[in-house]
Structure formats: C-alpha cells, structure tokens
Design a protein that fits this description.
single chain, mainly alpha, Rossmann fold, two-stranded antiparallel ribbon, 63% helix, 7 strands
Length: 896
C-alpha cells in the first residue's frame, strides 16, 4: 500500500472555498507577480484569512495547469518524523516520485538524515520537469529544529522550479536574508491581511445581502477589516437582525469574539506576554520606551519583538520617528482592556497615570491629557492644559474636554481659564456653541476683561461661534486679516486662517480665501499636518465647490481627505469636514458610489459640525437616498433633518431641507405639498432679505425651489422671475452653479413659451458651463420638463464638445452611473495605447485616493516604479493628472 494511503487524506487539500468567500484580488495579484519566487511567506494572526487566500491562489494555479502540492499541518506534525511523512505524502499525492523508505507516520525513524530527504525532494522536482508549488499551511505548529532545517534546505538548495509557500501565525525561524535581497522571497505580512473597505462591502453583501454604506463602514471600522470578526457579525445579524445602534456593542462585550480570543489566542500565551499586552492595550499607540514605562517590564523591547514576530494583532503605526510605533487591533485591545478592568481597576488607573507622565515628558501633551482624564487626575490635567506651550496638533482632545466641561464643578473650571477655554473650543467643534457662549460669558463676568492670552482665545471663540450661527458678517468684524502677523499662538494662527477663509467663502470672495492659503503654505512644516491647519486648508476645497468648479473640488478634496485621514483618522474633525465637501463634489460628478463611501459612518459627526459641512452632508445624503432607493426614502431622511434644524435654530440648513423636500414632492407629482413647503421657504427668505454672507443664500434657495414649482405649475412668467433672482445671487456671490441652474430653468420656461431662439441660447450656455465646470447632476436632477428642453437643444447642436457632453448626459438614466469623460475634449480618449496590467492595478489604487507611497507599499514596488508607471499612464491616456486618468480609465472600462 502506498504511504500516502496510510495518512489522513484531508491534510492534502485546503478547506473548500465557500461561494461566499471574498476574492482577495489585490493580494492575489501580488502573489501572481511573485509566482517565480522560491519562497513565499504569508504571516498573520488568527482569523485573518491566510488559508482562504492561499486556497484561492492554489485554485488559480490549478486552472493555469500548474503542479500544486498542499499540506495542512496540526500540532500532531510539530516534530520531524510526522512532518516528513506528511510532506512526502503531499508530494506523492501530486505525482512526484518521492520515497524515503517509510510506510506511515508511526514508523518514521527519527534518525533519518534531513539532508537525504532534501536531496530526494530536489531530485524528484528536477525529474518532474515543470514548476512545482508546495503549499504548507499552519506552519506555526512546527516546533522542531530538524523540521526547520529541512525547509531551510529546500529554500537554499531547491531548483528554480520549486516554489515553497508557507502560511503561519508566526514568522518561521528561517534564514531568508539572501532571498530577500535577491528578490527570491515574497511576503504577505500581517498589516496586508485585513480587508479593505471594498472587500468588507463584498463580504457583507455575500453574507447579508445589500448593506447600506453607513452600516458597512461602521462594521468595517469596528472590525478594522478582521475577517473572522466580520463572520461573527454576519452570524449574529442573521440570527437576530440588529440596528446600527447596537453594532458597536456586538463584538466588544462578552460575545463570540471574547470566546474566540480566549480559546484560540490568549490561552496559548506565556503569562508574561499576556500580562504585558494587557497593560499595553490601554495605549492607542506605543513604542518600546512607553511599553517599558507602562508595563514596568524591563524586557519590553524584547517582548515587543516577540509579539511582532508572533503576529499578535500588532500593527505598525506610520510616524516620522526614529523608533517604531505600534498599535493593537482595536477589538483585541478592547478585549484585553475588559479583562484587566474586571480584575484590577486600580491598576488600570495606574497604567493611565504612567502613560500620561511619559507622554508629558515627550512633549506629546494631548495624549498625556487623555490618559490623565482616564486616570481621574484632574490636577495633572489642569497642569497639562495650563502649560503655555501646549500644542494642539490634533483635535482628538474634544471628547476628553467635553467630558470635563460636563463633569467638573463650575468653580474648578472658572478657576482655570485655560482649561475652560480649551473646553469651549471642544464645545464649538461639537456644535455646542450655546454652551461655549455661556461659559465665555461666565468667565468674563467677574471683571469684564481677561488676561491678554485668554482674551485672544475668547475673541476667536466668538468668531467661531458666529460661524456656527451662520453670521459670517460678525465673524469678519471680529477678525482682521492683519491680525495674523501679531499672533504667536500656534493654534490661534491656524484658527485665524480657518475663520477668515470660511468667512471669505461665505461672502463670495473666493480669491481672497485662496490668497490666505499662501499663509498656510508658509506655516512651519511641523504645523502643516495640525488638525486646525487642515481645517483651514479645507476652505480651499470649499472655495472651488461654492464657485462651482467641481472638477477642481474633486482634485483638491480627494488629496485633502486622504491627508486628514492619514494624520488624524477617518472620524477626525478635519477628515469629516473635508469629506462632506468632497461627497458633494462626487455626487455632482455622478460618482455616487464614491459619494456614499466618503460620507459613510460620518453623518453622526457631521450633524454636530458647523453649518456648512452639516448642510452639504444633509443635501448629499438625501439625494443619494432618493437616487439609489426612492424619493420617499429621501423625504424620510429630510423629515428627520428638518426637526434637527428647527431645534438648532439654523435657518439656512432648514431652507435647504425644505427645498429638498419640495423637489422630491414635485418628483412624486404632489404639487400641493410642494406649495406648502414653498410658503415656508418664502417666509424664511423674507426674514433674511438683503442678508450678507451665508445667510444671503436663503433667498436664492427659495428662488430655486420657487422656479421649479412654477415650471411644474406651468407658470412660465413666475419661473422666469424666480430664475432671475437665482441668477442675480449667482453673479453677486460668484456661484457659477446657480447661474447654470438659472439658465436651465429660464431656458426651459422660454422654450415652453415658444421663445425658441432665446431658450436655446440659455440652455446652450448652461451646458457649456456645466461641461467646463464638471457639473453632471445639475443637468440630471431638474426633472423631466428640463430634460425635454435639453433634448430639444441637442437637435440644434452638431458634433463637438458641448454637443457630445450633452448627448452623454442625456443617455444616462437615474439608475445608471457610468462616470463621464471629464476632459475638455470629450471622447478624445476613446481609443489609445493599451495599458499594461501593472498600470491598470496602479490606476485602481489611485482611484481609491491612495498616494504614490501608499500604492508602492500596497504593491510591494519602489516609489520610483510607481511614478514611472503613472507617467506612462498619463501619456497613454492623454491626460494631465491622476484624477483625469482615473476618469478616462473608467470610461474605457479599464477599472470599476
């Protein structure tokens, strides 16, 4: 009987790939590119899909006609005798003539030389005459130096046709430095294994059906792309469907995850390692020095190296620092925190106190402040806040200071003005401007004046509060451009630029707003990634958006959101505000999937932000729901927002909500309901007639809604009058999109009145401007009557840019969202040189707003290689920028 017949046959094939498995397209591309490597290592923690990934690659290799051997290990094969029996059996299963004289595992002699088996396998592979791919899964079970020596021998002496692929939870103790230098080693490391958002969406769709983007993003953020956690969530939701409000609790507290981590991960840890990572879990990031201080363990550097080698959910943090920083997977950290909190709450406070002291010594005062709060050390927190050089690089202090302003007695806060002023900044950033204003009044009440350094903060707080109330004129009255040069406070310099630039945008002074970005560019390099500096920089994006230059808004916004996310996280103030602006631009370009993704799981924060990002988020969210679900869904969303706007007393967001509801009611042929909404809008317009800044927008909103209603009611004269009011606002405040809308509506009214020549003139002007600015949904969203007028215009236009652009817009239906060619020469890129697979893959990542550096890391390329490929892409597609390249590639069907 052949030896392989006496072994467990299921070890010679991977688990069956479920039809619901998510194809790891990017990782498989990396493996395909490295298929000539002699050794491939796939290393990562439990539950991150190593086996599934290799099974998918094995399947592709078999389809290509390659010779594949598979061996799944268990603890029974941790020693050489059993291992070599199964290794021989796996090779024999694939037809290789390997025979070391053994019958089955129990008869393997331990004294058989390793070198002999290496020679036997090498000889068999050479005789085979074709490439042999040997997969060994769960290699971490191997605990024997002779077995490692056997694999090392195959790595060192195997022919070019032998390709070893090892999957392991830990890095195997193999000497692979030569292979790494010569390019013969391919590696998929732990940070590569988590799902990206697109993979999470695919996984959820296959297991749960259609999942709304907000829920998908929330689940992705909770799990950090950990596949086994996604599986657990899906199982729980299938058993008992839960709403979004409980998703974040689904895995954090005493659930399947806790059992999984206890049974499959933590119980295998040495006591000193378990104690070490439990204490570290309370730090959002750590290095060896902080780990030594927090844990009290002098062996912290050695233990960190061991944890990284063993892939215990340790992820690198990309920082410009001479020593490496790490973080734990958030769900694993939460699990460890719960364990220690239940066992020793006093020790938890001590850990936070140690961390606070260490961060303060390093000058990282915001993180020191967070840990002081969790240590319940108010005295230490006050000391930190009142340090004159407190740098507010990140606004992550918001939640901490909000808690303090809510919990500390008034006499404590009033006795520490700097602490209270920073608390007021936190309240303003969270949309609680009334609370901030109340504290300011109490702070100034005893003497009527504040110390100079406190008075400046109070001044900029009042300007920010004015912006929260949409009173941009008041903000401009408080802040003068010349004040910038006299400011020495780092945070206030950035706040000055943000307040002034927002105010300029509101007043239609876009060039003045952009001129301020010269000051931002001249900030010290260390300040450019500060969160308030990024908030100030977001006004450049806002200026393009308000001016109507949608193409430039997307170019600027995609880069800014990526920077803000990289520096401060996806749900940071700077990232959330910029995302609201970018989502609006994406929607206008009819990139609805991109708009959904950039807005997903951020609406809760945007509802608490300043009026401009809040308003734009409301608009985009309701329009996405109406376009992708139904007008009724859009109306339900706006009903909720209307109640909030009335509660906050914000008239401009309320006007947008009422106008959005009126548009949807007209879409549903409910003119009576639309008239009631229009009456409320007109009342708001009267209240703010001749207003300045953002409040002047209310009259234009009412005019736009009124023109739509007049067209639906066939009141052509009123439609013309309303459109002219809208046009006047657009000209006065530089809102080119408003001028386009006015031309569309007035042109349609003129066409209905039989004034064909003037109607076609205005409609043509609207289309030409829309093409120049990159406006799409503006032409699509005005309803059937406008569409018919545009169809009439199309008959008068010959071939050419505007005609081609209009034809492409009119071919689109509400449910079809194929991106338009955004070049000024529409259709010029329909044909051209073919892109190479590598160039297409780089474009796919560029479409996700990845930087060249991030693309290089993702694809395991050098930065110069990525830049060279991008240059070739530009030349082949005939485009000047990454954005235009992505649009052109989508139009040609090269990428999704």
């Amino acid at each position: 009987m052949a030896p392989d017949r006496l072994l467990i046959p299921t070890k010679f094939a991977p688990p069956r790939i479920s039809p619901q498995s998510t194809l790891r397209t990017k990782l498989l591309a990396r493996l395909r590119d490295a298929r000539d490597s002699g050794l491939t290592l796939v290393c990562g923690s439990a539950g991150f899909g190593k086996t599934t990934l290799l099974a998918q690659w094995r399947q592709q290799l078999l389809k290509d006609g390659e010779l594949v051997c598979w061996l799944s290990l268990s603890p029974d094969e941790r020693l050489l005798p059993q291992f070599r029996a199964y290794l021989t059996g796996a090779l024999q299963q694939a037809g290789l003539p390997v025979d070391d004289g053994t019958a089955f595992a129990s008869e393997v002699r331990a004294d058989l030389p390793v070198a002999g088996l290496v020679a036997t396998i090498v000889d068999a592979v050479c005789q085979q005459g074709q490439d042999v791919f040997l997969f060994i899964d769960d290699y971490h079970h191997v605990d024997d130096s002779d077995t490692h020596a056997l694999i090392q021998g195959l790595v060192d002496h195997g022919p070019e046709t032998l390709h070893l692929i090892l999957a392991s939870r830990t890095h195997p103790p193999l000497a692979v430095h030569r292979q790494r230098l010569t390019g013969e080693l391919a590696e998929i490391a732990f940070p590569d294994l988590p799902f990206d958002f697109a993979e999470t969406q695919d996984f959820l769709a296959k297991h749960l059906g259609e999942v709304v983007p907000d829920d998908a993003r929330l689940i992705h953020d909770i799990t950090d792309g950990w596949p086994v956690c996604l599986q657990m969530i899906c199982i729980r939701l299938k058993r008992s469907p839960a709403n979004r409000a409980v998703l974040s609790q689904l895995l954090h507290r005493r659930t399947d995850l806790q059992r999984y981590l206890s049974e499959d991960v933590v119980r295998h840890l040495a006591p000193d390692v378990a104690d070490f990572i439990e204490k570290l879990s309370f730090c959002r990031r750590f290095n060896a020095e902080l780990a030594r201080r927090v844990t009290g363990n002098a062996q912290a550097p050695v233990l960190l190296e061991q944890i990284e080698r063993d892939n215990l959910f340790l992820l690198p943090v990309e920082l410009d620092s001479p020593q490496p920083w790490y973080r734990l997977h958030p769900l694993f950290a939460s699990f460890l925190q719960d364990r220690l909190q239940q066992r020793d709450p006093a020790l938890v406070q001590e850990i936070h106190a140690r961390a606070s002291q260490w961060f303060e010594q390093q000058g990282l005062l915001i993180e020191a402040l967070r840990h002081a709060y969790h240590a319940n050390d108010t005295e230490a927190a006050v000391h930190l806040v009142e340090r004159a050089d407190l740098p507010i690089r990140s606004m992550s202090f918001i939640s901490t200071l909000q808690h303090w302003t809510d919990e500390l007695p008034a006499e404590v806060l009033l006795g520490h003005p700097r602490l209270l002023l920073l608390g007021c900044w936190a309240l303003v950033a969270a949309g609680r401007w009334r609370d901030a204003q109340g504290w300011l009044e109490r702070l100034e009440r005893p003497h009527g004046t504040l110390a100079p350094e406190h008075a400046l903060h109070a001044l900029y707080l009042r300007a920010s509060i004015a912006l929260q109330r949409d009173d941009t004129e008041a903000a401009l009255a408080l802040v003068a451009p010349s004040d910038f040069e006299s400011l020495s406070d780092r945070f206030l310099r950035q706040a000055h630029l943000a307040v002034l630039s927002f105010s300029y945008c509101a007043a239609g002074r876009y060039e003045d707003a952009r001129a301020l970005h010269g000051h931002i560019a001249r900030l010290p390099r260390s300040e450019l990634q500060d969160e308030m500096a990024l908030v100030a920089e977001s006004t450049l994006l806002l200026s393009h958006l308000l001016a109507g230059n949608n193409r430039e808004a997307i170019r600027t916004g995609s880069a800014l959101v990526a920077r803000a996310e990289a520096a401060h996280g996806r749900r940071s103030v700077s990232a959330v505000n910029s995302a609201a602006f970018l989502a609006n631009a994406y929607y206008e370009a009819d990139l609805l999937a991109e708009a959904n993704e950039v807005l997903a799981n951020r609406l809760d924060l945007l509802r608490l932000s300043s009026p401009e990002p809040m308003t734009l988020a409301i608009i985009v969210r309701s329009r996405l729901m109406a376009a992708q679900a139904s007008p009724e869904e859009g109306l339900r969303a706006l009903d909720e927002e209307e109640a909030r706007c009335r509660e906050l007393g914000l008239d401009r967001p309320l006007a947008y909500v009422l106008a959005g509801k009126a548009r949807l009611q007209l879409q549903l042929n409910r003119q009576d309901e639309a008239r009631q909404l229009q009456a409320a809008l007109d009342q708001l317009a009267v209240r703010h007639r001749n207003a300045a800044g953002f409040l002047a927008e209310i009259e234009a909103i009412a005019a736009l809604a009124g023109a739509r209603l007049a067209l639906a009611s066939m009141d052509w004269t009123n439609a013309m009058a309303r459109a002219e009011t809208l046009r006047g606002y657009g000209v006065t405040f530089g809102r080119q999109k408003c001028v386009v809308q006015a031309d569309l509506l007035s042109g349609t009214a003129l066409a209905e009145m039989g004034e064909t020549t003037e109607a076609m003139h205005r409609l043509n002007a609207a289309v030409e401007s829309a093409q120049r600015l990159g406006l799409v949904r503006t032409l699509l969203d005005e309803g059937e009557r406008v569409r018919q007028a545009l169809l009439q215009l199309q008959l008068t236009l010959g071939p050419g840019c505007a005609g081609d652009y209009l034809a492409e817009v009119l071919r689109r239906s509400i449910g079809a969202h194929v991106p338009l060619q955004q070049s000024d020469d529409a259709g010029a890129q329909a044909n051209g040189p073919a892109l190479k697979p590598r160039e297409v893959e780089i474009l796919r990542l560029a479409a996700q707003s990845m930087s060249n550096k991030r693309i290089a890391l993702t694809l395991n390329l050098t930065l110069d290689t990525v830049k060279w490929n991008m240059k070739n892409v530009f030349e082949k597609l005939g485009v000047p920028s990454r954005y235009d390249a992505v649009i052109a590639a989508r139009k040609r069907g090269l990428i999704d």
